[in-house]
Write a structure and sequence with these properties.
Structural class: mainly beta
Number of strands: 11
Number of helices: 0
Strand content: over 45%
Low-confidence stretches: none
Order of helices and strands: EEEEEEEEEEE
Distance between the termini: 40 Å
Length: about 120
């Protein structure tokens, strides 16, 4: 079983910053990519950013220039640095691990609230 544990969420004022972490553990043989998704109340879950084993990254247009995804392969950990946060970034953020076998794993989610 693969476990993903997210941390780093919280309450921040508009314009502020947060860094999310996601640590993967368990029987992981090969990672295709890891990423972050988010879901706001009443909305569908959407992609925020992904990073492959070769360090290729992909970002949603809404976060480009503000968010940065990175990883530590030795620790099977992925990070999301979020700067210049806006109220519309408020959501539950979920970590995803996609294995080379095409099996996907999800974390429990961490809350991010951007409000004054």
């Amino acid at each position: 079983q693969v476990q993903l544990v997210e941390s780093g969420g919280g309450l921040v004022q508009p314009g502020g910053s947060l860094r999310l972490s996601c640590a993967a553990s368990g029987s992981i043989f090969s990672i295709y990519y890891m990423g972050w998704y988010r879901q706001a109340p009443g909305k569908q879950r959407e992609l925020v950013a992904t990073i492959t084993s070769s360090s290729s990254t992909n970002y949603a247009d809404s976060v480009k220039g503000r968010f940065t995804i990175s990883r530590d392969n030795a620790k099977n950990t992925v990070y999301l640095q979020m700067n210049s946060l806006k109220p519309e970034d408020t959501a539950v953020y979920y970590c995803k691990l996609a294995s080379i076998t095409a099996t996907n794993y999800w974390g429990q989610g961490t809350h991010v609230t951007v409000s004054s």
